[in-house]
Amino acid sequence: MKLGVSIAVVNKVPNIDRWGTGTGLLACPMRRASARRSTATGPRLNLAEARRAAMPVLVTRLIHPQGRHLRPTAPKGNTMTTIVVIGAGPGLGAAVARRFGREGFDVALVARDPERTNALAADLAREGITARGFAADVRDRNSLAAALDAAHATLGTIEVLQYSPVPHADFMRPVLETTADDLVGPLEFSVHGPVTAVRQVLPDMRELGRGTILLVNGGTAVVPHPDRAGTSIAFAAESAYGRLLHDTLAGEGIHVAQLIIPGAIVPGHPRKDPAVLADTLWTIHRDRHEFRHFADDLEP
Predict the structure, then answer these.
(1) Helical (H) or strand (E) element with 111
(2) Measuring CA to CA, which residue among 192, 188, 196 is closest to residue 146?
């Protein structure tokens, strides 16, 4: 069967890709190249103004021999997408939601407490960010998978996954007091949870042709602590999983990275304030370099 081709110039609302370049939906390569040059040499496009402006773009339609128009497909790099923040709370999770939301992402907030995620989503909505809350316990694989399915159904394609829930205090027992049973919770939290989440969102990223997976861990992921055996062991396993994903998925345009935050997240700290950490995570997503990054120097 031979397909004919018709070409039409239409008005489309432009999209902004995830690395700050203004492009039109279904835009031709010439416009994309021009947009990149303009942002490299002048002020960055204002996201809200750019979306409100209508831009003529070139659309190619395939025509069936019987005269029917086949549905055009938008380039993978220009679709509006979602970040999922697992372990979303008023600190780092909220800051990351705001940072990525300012760049045009919709935001799915996943945590155990639905009242907390819904309240945060309402706060973000008042700031002009599309956000929804979804309840899940990361130690319950079915619950987590269902929440991610709901996020996809509600907000659409998931491009970025951040896994950053706060470990339970009882995971941090001295090594000689830690039994095999004591390790079940930490491993569910830091291994089963990430594996479940990644397997749920990976089809979206592969379909999109790009994606980012961000794992956020404490310093015991790098330097085990004898008084925090559970997180030391589980974070090490999570780190190994992340490194394997990084090496395996890089060729598909999916970047996997880990941010190590030694000690506590501290409001007002020059490197560990939630907003500063959110900027760091955005930079990791944008620049797409190595696997492991450090928010601050490791504690002795």
Answers:
(1) strand 106-111
(2) 196
Q: What is the pTM of this model?
A: 0.75
Chain-centroid distance, C-alpha 112: 19
Q: Take residue 53 and report the two structure tokens written for it.
A: 């402006």
Whether the Cβ atoms of residue 57 and residue 24 lie closer than 8 Å to each other: yes
Task: Yes or no: say if 102 and 95 are a contact pair by the CB < 8 Å rule.
Answer: no
Q: Residues 6 or more apart from 10 whose CB is under 8 A from it?
A: 56, 57, 59
Q: Which of 81, 141, 131, 125 is nearest to 108 (CA)?
A: 131
Cα torsion through 5, 64, 24, 19, rounded to 10: -110
CA distance 72 to 74: 7
Distance CA 32, CA 16 (A): 11
Quote the distance between the C-alpha of residue 8 and its chain's center: 35
Per-residue pLDDT of the chain (300 residues; tens, 9 = 90+): 444 443 333 333 333 334 333 333 333 333 333 333 333 333 433 443 333 333 333 333 333 333 333 323 333 444 679 999 999 999 999 999 999 999 999 999 999 999 999 999 999 999 999 999 999 999 999 999 999 999 999 999 999 999 999 998 889 999 999 999 999 999 999 999 999 999 999 999 999 999 999 999 999 999 999 999 999 999 999 999 999 999 999 999 999 999 999 999 999 999 999 999 999 999 999 999 999 999 999 976
Quote the radius of gyration of the chain (alpha carbons, Å).
21
Are residues 191 and 147 in contact, defined by beta-carbon separation less than 8 angstroms? no
Label the pairing between strands 106-111 and 131-135: parallel
Question: Kind of pairing, strands 158-163 and 211-218?
Answer: parallel
